[in-house]
Amino acid sequence: MIKLIKRNLSGFGISLLLSVLTLVLHAIMDLYLPTINANLTNNGMARGDIPYIIRMGAWMMLAVLISTVAMICSSYFSSKTAMGLGKNMREEFFRHVQSLSKGDVDKVGTASLITRGTNDVQQVTNAAIMMLRMMLMSPTMFVGGIVMAWQKCPELAWIILCALPPIILLMIYMLKKGMPLFKSIQKKVDTVNQVVREYLSGIRVIRAFCKDDYETKRFDLANLDLQQVSLKVARMLAFMMPALMLIINATTIAIVWIGGHEMQNGTVEVGDLTAFITYVSMILFSLMLMSMMFIVLPRASASADRINEVLAMRSDVADPDAATDIRSLRGGYVTFDDVSFSYPGADMAVLEHISFSAKPGEVVAIIGGTGCGKSTLINLIPRFYDTTGGSVLLDGTDVRSLKQDELRARIGLVPQKSFLFTGTIADNVRFGKQDATDEEVIDALKIAQAYDFVMEMEEGIQTQITQGGTNVSGGQRQRLAIARALVRKPDIYIFDDSFSALDFKTDAALRKALFERVKDATIFIVAQRVSTIMNADKIIVLNDGVIAGCGRHAELMKTCDVYREIVCSQHAESEVG
Amino acid sequence: MADERSNQKPPVNMRGVMGLRRGGPPGSRPVEKAKDFRGSLKRLLTYHGMHKLSITIVFVMAILSSLFGVLTPKVLSRAMNILYDGFITIIGGERPEIDFNAILKILILLGFLYFLNAAFNYLQSYLMAGVSQKIIYRMRREVDEKLTKLPISYFDKNARGDILSRITNDIDNIGTTLQQSAVQVITSMVTIVGVLAMMLYISPLLALVVILSIPLTMLVTMGIAKRSQKYFTKQWNNLGDLNGHVEEMFTGAAVVKAYGYEDQAIAKFCEQNEALYENSRKAQFISGVIMPLTGTINNLAYVAICIVGGMGVINGTITFGDVTAFIQYQKQFSQPITQMANLMNVLQSAVASSERVFELLDEPEEEQNETIVPKPEKVLGEVDFEHVSFGYSKEKTLIRDMNIHVEPGQLVAIVGPTGAGKTTLVNLLMRFYEIDSGSIKVDGIDIRNLKRDDLRDIFGMVLQDTWLFSGTIADNIAYGSPEKDQAKVREAAQSAHIHRFIKTLSDGYDTILNEEGTNVSQGQKQLLTIARAMISRPDILILDEATSSVDTRTELQIQQAMEKLLKGRTSFVIAHRLSTIRNADLILVMKDGDIIEQGTHDSLMAQPTFYADLYNSQWGTT
Fold first, then answer.
1. What is the tens place of the pLDDT at every residue in B162-212?
2. Which of A227, B101, B537, B554 has the greatest CB tally within 10 Å of its CB?
């Protein structure tokens, strides 16, 4: 955590320093007040010197004012520092995530990434501001209090030594018992939340399987667990305050008693006695404040760990040190050379010994069952993952020796989940090409068969898309995502099951327009519908991670059983011909 | 003079420290107000009814503890007086005769009071912790039990996040408030009144100084709080924008990467981050100023007491001990005053929270019918819809006078365009919703005469919206069956054609599915839920678009496996893809809530039907 904070405080060093300095000044002024007050008592009150009282009173006023100004400055600088820390951490996190590969992102999970980038950063920031506002004050108070108390009545200083052990014991007890409890309470709360969340999302299934009782039991278990730990924590906290007060008050009694005797001996003055009492309670309180730090810190440090975990991830897809200049490559020849892929630790590979090639102007279709590795296969082309065996070549060059952004600039990808961003339709299409003119945008929309429905909308291409694209239908979303790829005019098109939500007529019209307009690019189409890919130049049939057949429709109907089965599952025998 | 701070509590926000609340710093969100404050408060108090004795004890102890706290400075002042008098004689150059016997007596009394104050305080908090935790536990439990009794329509109508936050955040809020703030209100009031009385008793003049500082404190606090609120609101908006952007960029990571949008995403992020930084910095600063300013006012009052009191001692109008006591009282007094405003907000929001919880508890429950027929030993699977009418709202009837007869063992397919009411049929069969008129019978028994659980036991159901809970893949498949038989799980996975995929995962069957299920695709999720239905071996099976994301060849293979499994069992299949239902015994074509055609594939294709149109348009074979 310290490293994380240190790194992200860059640029705020001075404001951190000022924040600490002003806080210390504030503490010193506060420490000074009882001493002035003691003088006021000893020399003014007891000796009947009214002007002295007023003079001392004025000094106290001054101290109060300085302390106030110092504290306000400190508040200014601490806000700046802590919020700056938050800002920098968020930025570092966001930048880092942008540099990670798709596989890395999937590993952590999107939701978890979002929480880490927002909530966890917030936790660390909150802890930082608390540290800067209060925690730093306690060491100053502690040391300052001891110095001042010692100076006032060295004769009584040993009382402090007697009072410290019980307080420290109390602290240790709190930390030892409390810290694990605080941690576990957070976990239990999460468990309760999770059980409820799952109940809510699975309500139909739970009722259909008559598992209400089972779920209630699950909840009750989590609930009881939470209650028991919360109770322990609450009771512990209930003990803490009175115990602390009792120690401080007992110390006060001791000071009055012993101090009284010292006074009789003439070594201590009455004003010093009252100041001493104040200092002792300041010292003891500051210790308690410090222990609070140990409660806040573990939470923040857990958050910092979660952030660091992501920051420590090194993208498993990295740019090569000496990249091949992509400008030296022309065309769009894609070759899979004995490619295998498997997830780390898995029993079976997703893809095994895949070899084929595609050239510009060619339409290559990939078909196969759910989970046979189609998406994984095409994700290897833009290097969302790296192969675990063999290589993927672009124009004869291994894609791993190219820079990722340059490689991807050559590709127009339409992913399975047609994700749209908030913004206008035009913005979304221009995502593919920043400087596309309105004509280019409209042209792309036309090829994607999206122009008509876009024009039916009141604001045309300026229509706003809501977050997640929920205000357009699934089929419309797909067509907009296709237009986004078309506007790029890339060398390679990849359509990952991108026609699934289109009805037959739109599907056919779109393909017709596409093949008419795009003549010299390499096109990959992943599909489940045979009719979508029937006319492809090359159909690759994937089955359980291996190529079961490769060729044109007519050939495959004769030679490939899997393909025939797929076709038959979709068309009545008479219709296949 | 004694500047005794022993009664000051550490200025740490205990709620934050408790770790029970999430979210931003205190005071950052506007306080919510309850609609019916009195009513909800009253009802919240009924929860305390069970613990009447404990709560009475808590209150008595809280009051006593505060009273002892109020008394101690005055008692201590007597000892200080004796010491001061002794000191005066020392200054006079004489050997002082300090009456240590008297001091000892005072100190013993004082020690006793301190002890009682601490002891009562501890016992009170200890008891209250128990009471509030019990109440919270009960509340949570009640809400959870309530959930199981609510009709599905409730869950369809209300946002999940909203229900969830009632159960978690709202109840948490009530809990922390009960535990910490409820008693504090009592002690604060007792302390304020007690201290005020003591101060007036000791010195009306000095009391005036303290009382004057109160409106000043309040003015400063409220004035600043109002100003900071503006920035807090901005901060919340900025945070919302920023989080929205982060969410979008992370969820759309594939597209962002594919189109090399990383740099723009970062640029936009930095801009929003900067705005957030500016506003949160200001909000933090302004709200951070409140404490030093009120502290200053208190310190000024303290200085005034020192000066005025010091002169009073010289004039002999007040004793030294009384001045020291007064300083303590001033500290004791200012603390609850500054706390009160905050405390009121906390109470307000707790009552608002409890109101939301009560709202949920008051929702009408699923009706329980009187006439119960035991579940038949052997279900044949004959299903009848007789003159069934139904609408999701009273004004709009979706299904009118529907009649269907299904023979035992038939495969019934329901097809039709979106919104035709296909899924509604499932809702009615499973009694997720109650029909308005007519009756639905299984084996001749009106389903309303069966216990819901018995009825649902007969059915197995696979929905388009797959539901997997966080747990291993094996657990998810075995959900339908009480015993977890590894071999059976594997067998079901194999028939659902998901076995191979599971084996490609790093941990195989023990792979933990995360909550969003990002590690499996929609089609794979559907296969997992099919495996789950297979293992439960129901009498009647309902598949509602269960294989919509599965490829057709796998779908066909699953169907064959399922046919074996369901030989002689009735099944309902809702499908968008018509290729999969050609061999159904009965095809029901629905449109706008009505069954417009029924028959087999061949009989429907033989005529120019709506079905034939639908079928041909889907495959483009005309």
1. 888 888 888 888 888 888 788 888 888 899 999 999 999 998 988 988 888
2. B554
With CB atoms and an 8 Å threshold, state whether B504 touches A346. Answer: yes
Q: Look at residues A100, A127, A105, A107 and name the one whose alpha carbon lies nearest to residue A314.
A: A100
Co-location of B531 and B415 in the same domain: yes
Burial of A551 (0-12, 13-18, 19+ CB in 10 A): middle
CB contacts, 8 Å: A133 with chain B: 288
**Do B439 and B486 sit in the same domain of this protein?**
yes
User: Tokens 């306000």 — which residue?
Assistant: A72
Provide the pLDDT for residue B42.
Answer: 86
In three-state secondary structure terms, B368 is coil
The amino acid at B462: V
Tokens linked to A552: 């044109």
Question: What separation, in Å, do the N-terminal and C-terminal C-alpha atoms of chain A show?
Answer: 68
CATH 3.40.50.300 in chain A is located at: 328-576
Do residues B532 and B519 share a domain? yes
Superfamily of domain A328-576: P-loop containing nucleotide triphosphate hydrolases (3.40.50.300)
Q: Do A48 and B314 touch (CB under 8 A)?
A: yes
Say how far apart CA B181 and CA B190 lie, in whole Å.
Answer: 14
Q: Reduce the DSSP state of residue B369 to 3 states and report it.
A: coil
Q: Which residues in A lie closer than 8 A to residue B430 (C-beta atoms)?
A: 204, 207-208
ipTM value, please give it: 0.81
CATH architecture of residue range(s) A2-311: Up-down Bundle (1.20)
| Cβ–Cβ below 8 Å for B18 and A233 | yes
Say yes or no: A305 contacts chain B, CB-CB below 8 A.
no
Residues B294 and B349 both lie in one domain: no
Q: Length of chain A, please?
A: 577
Q: Do B306 and A60 touch (CB under 8 A)?
A: yes
User: CA-to-CA distance for A124 and A130, rounded, in angstroms?
Assistant: 10
> How many CB atoms within 10 Å of residue A161?
8
Beta strand segments in A285-383, E? 334-341, 351-358, 363-368
Min distance B243 CA to chain A CA atoms (Å): 7
- pLDDT tens digits, B553-606: 777 777 777 777 767 788 898 877 777 777 888 998 888 888 888 888 888 888
Is residue A285 less than 8 Å (CB to CB) from chain B? yes
B3 lies in some domain: no
Smallest CA-to-CA distance from A281 within A238, A260, A257, A250 is with A250
Instruction: Please give the C-alpha separations between residue A128 and each of A131, A141, A289, A299, B278, in angstroms, as whole numbers.
Output: 5, 19, 15, 12, 17
What CATH number is associated with residue B351? 1.20.1560.10
Closest alpha carbon to A300 in A1, A563, A59, A554: A1
- The contacts found for B89-94 with CB under 8 angstroms, 24 or more apart, are B90/A263, B90/A266, B91/A46, B91/A47
Q: Structural domain tally of chain B?
A: 3
Nearest-Cα distance to chain A for B160, in Å, is: 6
Whether residue B550 and residue A370 make contact (CB cut-off 8 A), yes or no, is: yes
A213 by Cβ neighbours in 10 Å (0-12 / 13-18 / 19+) ranks as exposed
Tokens 């500290």 belong to residue: B331
pTM of the entire predicted model? 0.77
Q: Which domain holds residue B52?
A: 36-201+343-366
Mutate to test the interface with A, among B290, B552, B555, B601 (most CBs of A within 10 A): B552
Count CB-CB contacts under 10 A for residue A327: 7
User: A526 in helix, strand or coil?
Assistant: strand
